[in-house]
């Protein structure tokens, strides 16, 4: 169970480290109105009024900021030959020992496969007066 949880956590870590996204924020004055991650941020009601006043005052009270979070775009993939000798030795020994755990038992001979137990002449528990309580 721990192995599955650990592998899923590593897969999610790789996924989130390579994903890029943008965070768009809309401010009206100094007040944050809306934050959006994948879509456009909603504009406030002052945006329409501001368009009319822009010709007169030339000053905007609303502003949009966009923060771009760039993920990792190049993953390094090492080959077996790129590893140092100690790492190659460890990886080879670990793989060999791990795969030997899952040997197929059908190839091995089982010496007691066709053994038939002896016939019981008497009930030994009753004869020796030994009972489980």
Structure description:
There is one protein chain. This protein has about 130 residues and is α+β, with helices and mostly antiparallel strands. The protein is built from four helices and three strands; from the N terminus they run αββαβαα. It has helices spanning about 1-20, 45-55, 85-100, 125-130, and strands at about 20-30, 30-35, 60-70. The chain has a three-stranded antiparallel β-sheet. A hairpin with a 2-residue loop joins strand 1 and strand 2 (about 30-35). The model has no long low-confidence stretch (mean pLDDT about 80). This is Secreted protein.
Strand content of the residues, in percent? 15-25%
Rough outline: elongated
Average predicted confidence as pLDDT: 80
What is the H/E string? HEEHEHH
Sheet with the most strands, sense and barrel status? 3 strands, antiparallel
Which strand order does the major sheet show? 2-1-3
Our Rg estimate from Cα atoms comes to 36 Å
Structural class: alpha+beta
Number of DSSP helical runs: 4
Strand element count: 3
What's the helical proportion of residues?
25-40%
Distance between the termini: 38 Å
Instruction: Give the low-confidence spans.
Output: none
Signal peptide: 1-22
InterPro entries: DUF8199, HYC_CC_PP
Keywords: Signal
Pfam families: DUF8199 (PF26622)
């Amino acid at each position: 169970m721990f192995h599955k949880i650990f592998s899923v956590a590593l897969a999610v870590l790789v996924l989130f480290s390579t994903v890029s996204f943008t965070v768009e924020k809309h401010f009206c004055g100094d007040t944050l109105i809306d934050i959006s991650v994948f879509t456009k941020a909603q504009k406030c009601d002052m945006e329409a009024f501001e368009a009319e006043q822009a010709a007169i005052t030339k000053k905007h009270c609303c502003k949009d900021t966009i923060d771009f979070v760039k993920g990792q775009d190049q993953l390094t993939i090492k080959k077996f030959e790129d590893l140092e000798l100690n790492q190659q030795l460890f990886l080879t020994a670990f793989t060999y020992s791990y795969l030997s755990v899952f040997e197929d038992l059908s190839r091995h001979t089982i010496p007691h496969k066709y053994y038939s137990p002896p016939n019981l002449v008497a009930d030994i528990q009753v004869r020796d007066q030994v009972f489980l309580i």
